[in-house]
């Protein structure tokens, strides 16, 4: 495990700073006023080029992106993903290899916290770009652990596996859906199977693709960091509606 963490962190630390593909990209350490003045495309590039995705700076940029049209965000994400091709020198140049995984992470973050991207035409196009990128990586051998061991190649394989899981989560259910199911069980004694959880996720997406943002979330340190929704009532009422619709038997 230590070897895995060291390799992944070493691979993740090589992130392109704000130069290259987006000529009008802003300088780092932008103020809130500067961030607000950026186009959505510039803001997406700014976000994916930050060295640490969980930094205060990254959170400020994400807060700005949450206010933008998600269709525009998804269009730029798709462009970044489609620009990367590990099979060719040109496809790997200009920081494309560093930008692409962070662009998919941004899509995943939007999917989990803002809106189900699969509900948008532009979101589905971004997901198709995710799939094409993964296919190109697989053709380039990124899905295989290196023999003999090599730090960079091993980190690359781990990032590929993580991105594959992230893509599958955006296509189906992800950790936020699991958080909802866990709170249903904890607060109301309702236990959903994996198939019921998938159908409930589809029901919520059809009802309101922004359901992931119905409530703020918090981590309960006293309960092993369990994620809970501050206001769970909208989710419970949606579950009752889901149940009345005949999608579940209780």
Give an overview in words.
With 250 residues, the chain is mostly helical. It folds into two domains: 2-171, no CATH class; 175-244, no CATH class. Helix content is 61%, strand content 3%. The protein has twelve helices and two strands, in the order αααααααααααββα. A two-stranded antiparallel ribbon has the order 1-2. Helix 5 runs parallel beside helix 8 and helix 7 (96-113) runs parallel beside helix 9. The longest helix has 21 residues, at 151-171. It is globular. The termini are far apart. Residues 1-27 have low confidence and may be disordered.
Strand order of the largest sheet: 1-2
Largest sheet: 2 strands, antiparallel
Strand content: under 5%
Overall 3D form: globular
Order of helices and strands: HHHHHHHHHHHEEH
Oligomer: single chain
- Please tell me how large the radius of gyration is: 19 Å
Provide mean pLDDT, rounded: 84
Number of E-type strands:
2
Low-confidence stretches: 1-27
Q: Give me the number of helical elements.
A: 12
Report the helical percentage. 55-70%
Helices and strands, with pairings:
Blueprint (H helix, E strand, L loop, with lengths): L1 H11 L19 H6 L2 H9 L7 H10 L4 H14 L5 H4 L3 H18 L7 H19 L11 H21 L3 H14 L5 H14 L9 E4 L5 E4 L3 H12 L6
Antiparallel strand pairs: 1-2
Tags for this entry?
12 helices; 250 residues; disordered N terminus; globular; mainly alpha; two-stranded antiparallel sheet
What is the gist of this entry?
This protein has 250 residues and is mainly alpha-helical.
């Amino acid at each position: 495990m230590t070897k895995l963490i060291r390799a992944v962190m070493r691979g993740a630390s090589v992130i392109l700073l704000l130069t290259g593909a987006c000529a009008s990209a802003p300088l780092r350490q932008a103020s809130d006023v500067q961030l607000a003045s950026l186009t959505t495309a510039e803001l997406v590039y700014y976000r994916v080029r930050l060295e640490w995705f969980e930094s205060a700076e990254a959170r400020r940029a994400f807060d700005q992106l949450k206010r933008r049209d998600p269709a525009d965000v998804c269009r730029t994400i798709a462009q970044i993903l489609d620009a990367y091709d590990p099979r060719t020198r040109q496809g790997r140049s200009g920081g494309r290899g560093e930008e692409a995984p962070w662009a998919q992470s941004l899509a995943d973050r939007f999917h989990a916290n803002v809106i189900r991207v699969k509900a948008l035409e532009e979101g589905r196009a971004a997901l198709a770009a995710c799939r094409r990128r993964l296919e190109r990586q697989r053709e380039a051998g990124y899905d295989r652990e290196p023999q003999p061991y090599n730090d960079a190649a091993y980190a690359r394989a781990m990032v590929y596996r993580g991105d594959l899981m992230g893509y599958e989560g955006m296509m189906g259910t992800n950790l936020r859906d699991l958080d909802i199911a866990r709170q249903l069980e904890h607060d109301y004694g309702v236990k959903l199977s994996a198939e019921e959880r998938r159908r409930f996720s589809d029901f919520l997406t059809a009802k309101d693709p922004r359901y992931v943002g119905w409530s703020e979330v918090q981590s309960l340190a006293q309960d092993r960091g369990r994620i809970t929704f501050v206001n769970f009532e909208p989710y419970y009422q949606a579950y009752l509606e889901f149940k009345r619709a005949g999608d579940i038997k209780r």
